[in-house]
C-alpha cells in the first residue's frame, strides 16, 4: 500500500480547514451574532440572525469543540476563496493519489451540506465516506472500493431531538439537483420516509442507531432535525457514528463533512458483512465490498502506525456482548488474508487467533 507524499497530505489538511471556514461563513450571515446556550448541563453555540419575521436561532455546535469555538472567535475574518480551493482539489485528484466521489454523489453531499446537514451533526457513511480515508490516512486506496449507487447519512436520534433546528425539506433540496427525485415510503410505515430515489435508481438514505430492542430494527424513527425525513433503525450503527471526524470531500471546491473514524468504519464493516443477505448478486456484491474496505483500512491503519486506534475500536466492539462477537467472528472468517494479518498485528496476535 503506497503512502501519499507529505506535501499532498499537508495540502489535504489545508483544504479541510479552508472548506470548513467557507461553510462556516456561508451558514452564518455577518449581520447575526453567536450566543452560548446551556442544554442539559453542557454549553452549545447557537447563532441568532435577523429576519423580517424577527430573530431566528440556528444550531452551530458544541462549545467544547475547539474548531467551532475558534471559528466563532474569528468569524469576521473568515473569507471564502472558492477558486483557490478548487485548485487544491484538482491537484489532489490529479497528482496527489487521492480520489473524489462521482460528480452526482458529490453534488448530493454538497447540497445537503449547504442545507446544514453536517452543521446538525449528521455523519456521511458508506462508500462515499470511504473515499475520504485516503486523505485522512495518507495512503492510496483503489478506486474499485469506492464505486457506489447511493449516498448514506446517519444521525444519532438524541442529537436530532435536542438540537431545536432542522434542515429545509430534504426532497426540496434533492430536487434542485435532479427533479426526478421522489420520496420512497417506508415498507413498515408508509407515512414515514427514510429514503429518496431518482429516475435512474440513485438512492439517498438516512439511518440511525437502534435505540432499544431488536423490535425497533427495520422500523423508521422520526428525526426532528432532518427536514421531514425519518431514519431507518439499524443495529451496530451507534458504534460507527460515535466520535466522528471532520474532513473534506474532494468535490468541486471541497465539501466539509463529518465521517466515521477509519478504525470504527473498519470494524463496523466486518460486522455488517456477516449480516448481509447474500441470496442475490446485489447482496453478495455489497458483502464483498464490505470485506474489501475493512481489509484495506486495517492494512492502512497498521502501515500508518495507528494500530492502537484499531485495537481500541475492535476491543470496544468485542466487549459489547455475544451478538457483537458472533458478528465479528463471522466477518473475520470471510475477510481477505491481508486484512486479517494487519488486524492481528494491530492486536498483537496471530491472525488465526482472531475471534477467539
Q: H/E series, N to C? A: HEEEHHHEHHEHHEEEEEHEEHHHHH
- Low-confidence parts: none
Strand content: 15-25%
Structural class: alpha+beta
- The number of strands is 12
Instruction: Give the % helix.
Output: 40-55%
Tell me about the largest β-sheet: 7 strands, mixed
**Total helix count?**
14
Please give the alpha-carbon distance between the first and last residues.
Answer: 28 Å
Describe the structure.
By secondary structure, this protein is of the alpha+beta class. The protein has helices spanning 6-27, 66-73, 82-94, 103-115, 126-130, 133-137, 157-162, 170-175, 237-241, 262-274, 281-303, 307-318, 322-334, 337-347, and strands spanning 33-39, 42-49, 56-62, 123-125, 150-154, 182-185, 193-197, 203-209, 220-222, 230-234, 245-249, 255-259. Strands 4, 5, 6, 7, 8, 9 and 10 form a seven-stranded mixed beta sheet that branches. Strands 1-2-3 form a three-stranded antiparallel beta sheet, covered by helices on one side. Helix 1 (6-27) packs antiparallel against helix 3 (82-94), helix 10 (262-274) crosses helix 12 (307-318) and helix 12 packs across helix 14 (337-347). It is globular and about 65 Å long. It starts with 5 loop residues before the first helix and ends in a 9-residue tail after the last helix.
